[in-house]
Design a protein that fits this description.
With 303 residues, the chain is mainly alpha-helical. It has one domain. The protein has eleven helices and no strands.
């Protein structure tokens, strides 16, 4: 199925498993996915809840940075800072527990999506690459869910320099510096793809954009595209910092979302505040984009 335009996608159910040697394993896996997705629909609802949690976190990050750009307080931070901000709100620990459930549910859905292929992406190199990205997203959000749970329990979520620690470990491997460079280039490539997707309105492949346009209005589509593009710019800055870190074998150069915001804000004259403000507003818009996934994303099931 193509996602070349902002048009609604036909709901597809996958019927038969692959006629290869691993047929029984494939069938058993898809049956497990089918039961998990149907039963009481737990995984699907948890996945939608995960999008809500992600959207709120992006909005908190963007709102805090927007206050900095407007010189109205706030702070430049990333996901861990956003979680800490949530914890400081009334019923903060309860909200964190909800976030844990949502993030882990989202992680489980992404892993299942990658392993059992309800989208029928297949076993060619492109399909396998997309499926691997689903599993990777699942693992990343599982780690984030675990960090959130630690914060909920009153423990340290993680080291503030965890990204640099990963780079330091990578430099100990053979050709580790080149792996870091490739990781940075991969992030820049992803950012460019996201900018292209925003310009051409090729959003999430299973997002029903036409239904969103009819029910919410054209402004919702436009706001989502702006959010996707703005986040891509921040990711491109982050990717470049990773490339520099790998090229010079200097883990201190590895950046974060917060450091990318600071890089934009450090530009000369009034340009820095303007760039920070646009990027921050974009993160708020991307949070909205994540939240509407909970309503308009078609989560496919194995039949």
């Amino acid at each position: 199925m193509s996602s070349s335009d902002c048009t609604s996608a036909e709901v597809v159910r996958v019927g038969k498993s692959s006629p290869v040697v691993g047929r029984l394993i494939d069938f058993a896996g898809k049956r497990a996915y089918h039961e998990s997705m149907n039963g009481f629909g737990a995984i699907e609802w948890l996945a939608r809840g995960g999008f809500l949690v992600k959207g709120v976190l992006y909005m908190v990050i963007g709102a805090l940075a927007l206050q900095v750009a407007a010189r109205a307080g706030g702070r430049v931070t990333g996901t861990r800072g956003a979680l800490t901000a949530v914890l400081g709100q009334p019923f903060g620990r309860t909200l964190l527990l909800v976030a844990v459930i949502g993030l882990l549910g989202y992680a489980a859905w992404r892993v299942l999506q990658g392993l059992f292929d309800p989208d029928r992406l297949g076993h060619n190199w492109r399909g396998l690459a997309i499926r691997a990205s689903f599993v990777t997203r699942g693992v990343v959000h599982a780690v984030l869910g675990w960090q959130t749970f630690r914060l909920y329990r009153g423990l340290s979520a993680a080291s503030g320099n965890s990204e640099r620690e990963v780079a330091t470990e990578a430099f100990r491997w053979p050709l580790g510096d080149w792996l870091v460079v490739l990781a940075g280039l991969g992030l820049i490539g992803f950012a460019l793809q996201q900018v292209y997707a925003a310009i051409t309105c090729r959003l999430e492949r299973n997002l029903d954009v036409e239904e969103m346009r009819r029910e919410a209005g054209e402004w919702a589509v436009g706001l989502s595209r702006f959010g996707v593009a703005a986040r891509a710019v921040v990711f491109a800055v982050l990717g470049w910092a990773i490339v520099v870190a790998g090229w010079f074998r200097d883990p201190s150069e590895v950046g974060t979302t917060a450091s990318s915001f600071r890089t934009l804000a450090a530009q000369p004259g009034g340009l820095g505040r303007w760039l920070l403000g646009v990027a921050a507003a974009g993160f708020v818009a991307f949070g909205f984009y994540e939240i509407i996934h909970a309503r308009y994303l078609r989560i496919r099931r194995v039949g």
